[in-house]
Design goal:
heterodimer; A: mainly alpha; 14 helices; 69% helix; 0% strand; B: alpha/beta; six-stranded mixed β-sheet; 10 helices; 10 strands; 39% helix; globular
């Protein structure tokens, strides 16, 4: 099987500054023009194609990027990631219906709420490792959903209705069915998240996370403040999930606890593992495929999830490290081999 | 000789009913190479573990540069100037040799996550300096050419040296080497002895655990011997070698003598 990741990395590395900008712009243009390809082979039967692009695809991509900071970069198994998504969404729902604040004003508040809950969860949970951490986060995800299900102020099982759409910005109107506008906005958020993750990965934080993932004890004994960096990973992951949540609520206009089940956590985790833990492009690809596939094959109705499961099983057997595994090439060796 | 860099005062370490260290006291003087030897299970690695904060000692005190190390977080101990290598190699395998060292040099750096995110010039300058420093350290231990290779793919001997370079990356005053020559052939051991002396000459203080007697006796200024968690000798290499208690610990007591 050809190594897509190395090919991609090679093309990128061989470009100068200008070449990279051109490449990046081309990439963004292609991705941004996806909503116009509704009539082609890409079209999803039954479900509205443009709406599928927004949710699940773009939303999954954003969340997978966030979860990848926690799981892929730092090796912290978080099974309750949906909690941050829910917290963002409920912040939007509550503030959007009860106060005069609009989506753009609530976005930073929702992100802050998610980050704050990341700290609250992280302080007790990150003292534990591996399986124990996974169980605590699993519990946290359920707690958030059950609180929403039982708290009168959050609408219990009826959830929150009539959440406002984002107000116009730069003359762009958001209406309920203008999916492509939402899609492009999400694209901006995704690009911001990619920028953040790539930036951090190349620097001190990225190295600290990497060392924690590979051998936490050795990291601590060589002076890495492991606990602090684990909290940071949690908080940054949460911020991305929170942003996705705010936007989700503002798109669907109606949220209920049923939107935030364990299944979402598991699906996002599957995106990360399927795409290639630790490699942001792999994770994005994984999220795109896992978000798109169930809707693309909707015509086989009942057998849909069976096929979906089969694809997962087969692919994980063929490529256990994911579609695009984490980057680890040895530059000098390549050069030596070439000469 | 100059003053003590680190002092262990009556240190005991118990795991339930098992006493790993019993009332051990010794010090390491500045810019000295102290060899720590003893039969298997004597408590040598436990000494490293209590100094670096892996275990909290049951009683006694460890003083580093005049201040107690008890109750201090592990990474803080490293920041104060103690770094170690591991007997079983514990490099970060998916990182390059250079990255392994840079991660340790991050120990003392101020600019953290937020500065790094926005790419302020401070952070960028530091990044550049750290890289240069890490490369210097790799060169210093003689593995400079491997800097871009993944740690897990390096030959065994290079991994052992990388462990040393990584520990030096944390800018320690006291360097703890846990069997750095394990698995080396005689020629490699000679090389390593030269490297350890070079490290000391560069201003580091070295506490060395090693099983190879000829290596320890050759490089050490002083040797401390542990047996069943107790210190049984603390002297110059020459005297330790002739100490009857040391010989007894290693070879046992002749039957007719008891």
């Amino acid at each position: 099987m050809i190594n897509l990741r190395d090919k991609g990395a090679e093309i990128w590395e061989n470009q100068g500054r200008v070449g990279r900008v051109v490449l990046a712009l081309c990439g963004v243009t292609v991705v941004a023009s996806l909503p116009f390809l509704g009539g082609t082979i890409l079209n999803t039967p039954i479900a509205d194609y443009e709406s599928v692009l927004v949710y699940p695809i773009a939303m999954f991509v954003l969340m997978a990027i966030g979860l990848n900071i926690v799981i892929g970069k730092s090796g912290l198994l978080d099974l309750g990631y949906v909690a941050f998504f829910a917290i963002g969404a409920y912040t939007m729902g509550l503030l959007g219906t009860k106060t005069g604040l609009n989506t753009w004003e609530i976005l930073p508040i929702g992100i802050a709420m998610a980050m704050f809950s990341g700290i609250i969860l992280g302080i007790p949970a990150l003292k534990l490792r591996g399986d124990y951490l996974a169980i605590i986060t699993l519990g946290f995800g359920e707690i958030v959903r059950i609180v929403a299900l039982n708290l009168g102020a959050l609408g219990r099982s009826e959830g929150i209705l009539n959440i406002p759409t984002p107000p116009a910005i730069f003359g762009i109107e958001y209406t309920f069915d203008s999916h492509r506008i939402y899609y492009w906005t999400l694209l901006v958020l995704i690009l911001l998240a990619i920028w953040m993750v790539r930036r951090l990965s190349a620097r001190r934080a990225g190295r600290a996370w990497e060392s924690i993932r590979q051998d936490e004890d050795a990291a601590e004994l060589l002076g890495v403040p492991t606990f602090r960096y684990k909290i940071w990973a949690f908080v940054l992951g949460a911020s991305v999930g929170g942003a996705a949540g705010v936007f989700y609520a503002s798109k669907t206009l109606f949220i209920a606890p049923d939107n935030f089940t364990l299944q979402i956590s598991i699906l996002i985790l599957a995106c990360v593992v399927f795409g290639g833990m630790g490699n942001i492009w792999g994770v994005i690809l994984g999220a795109v495929i896992l978000g798109y596939l169930p809707d693309r094959i909707r015509f086989i109705s009942d057998a849909r999830l069976l096929v979906f499961g089969l694809v997962l099983v087969i692919m994980m057997n063929l490529r256990p490290d994911g579609l695009l595994p984490r980057k680890k090439r040895e530059k000098t060796i390549d050069k030596k081999d070439a000469t | 000789m100059s003053s003590s860099l680190i002092q262990l005062k009556n240190v005991s370490m118990k795991f339930g009913g098992v006493t790993a260290l019993s009332d051990v006291s010794f010090d390491v003087k500045e810019k000295e190479i102290l060899g720590l030897i003893g039969p298997n299970g004597a408590g040598k690695t436990t000494v490293f573990n209590v100094i670096t904060g892996v275990y909290q000692i049951t009683s006694g005190e460890i003083i580093f540069e005049g201040k107690s190390l008890s109750g201090i977080k592990r990474y803080e101990i490293t920041r104060r100037g103690v770094a170690r290598t591991f007997q079983s190699i514990r490099l970060w395998g998916d990182m390059t040799a250079l990255e392994n060292v840079i991660t340790a040099t991050d120990t003392h750096k101020k600019s953290g996550l937020v500065l790094g995110l926005f790419g302020f010039p401070v952070s960028r300058r530091e990044e550049k300096r750290d890289k240069a420093r890490a490369q210097e350290l790799l060169d210093f231990v003689g593995i400079g050419e491997y800097s871009d290779r993944l740690a897990k793919n390096l030959p065994y001997g290079v991994q052992r040296r990388l462990e040393i370079a990584r520990a030096m990356g944390a800018e320690p005053k006291l360097l703890l080497l846990d069997e750095p020559a394990a698995g080396f052939n005689p020629a490699e051991k000679v090389d390593l002895a030269a490297t350890i002396r070079k490290i000391r000459d560069a201003g580091y203080t070295v506490l060395l655990i090693e099983h190879d007697m000829s290596l320890v006796m050759k490089v050490s200024d002083r040797v401390v011997v542990l047996d069943f968690g107790q210190k049984i000798a603390d002297d110059s290499p020459g005297k330790v070698q002739d100490d009857p208690r040391v010989i007894e610990a290693y070879l046992g007591v002749p039957e007719n003598a008891s």
